[in-house]
Design goal:
Number of strands: 0
Order of helices and strands: HHHHH
Strand content: under 5%
Distance between the termini: 37 Å
Oligomer: single chain
Radius of gyration: 15 Å
Shape: globular
Number of domains: 1
Number of helices: 5
Helix content: over 70%
Length: about 100
């Protein structure tokens, strides 16, 4: 677990040292980091999914239904890849109905 934090911190250090950033700025930076094979692995498997989870928690806390729906749409590939078919079917149905 410590290695994950160290790699994530090293990947984001230069970007975050200037102060707080918006979610769009972070997404653009991560897209640039995905150009390297190792960066793509860390961004896709760890960092992006963590950012989606944090964004979803914020949507739940603030009762922001549009952000919640956006997070559901972003979570779908991860839920399908994990093999959670019942959750994937429910989230798909929820996104379509909303």
């Amino acid at each position: 677990m410590r290695a994950f934090r160290m790699v994530t911190a090293a990947l984001l250090y230069d970007f975050l040292k200037d102060g707080p950033k918006t979610f769009e700025d972070i997404s653009q930076y991560l897209d640039a980091a995905r150009e390297h094979p190792t960066g793509r692995l860390w961004v896709d498997c760890l960092i992006r999914s963590t950012l989606i989870a944090h964004q979803f928690e914020r949507a739940e806390r603030d009762c922001d239904y549009l952000l919640q729906q956006h997070c559901y749409q972003q979570m779908l590939p991860y839920v399908f890849a994990a093999g959670h078919w019942q959750n994937a079917n429910y989230i798909t149905w929820h996104v379509i109905e909303m």
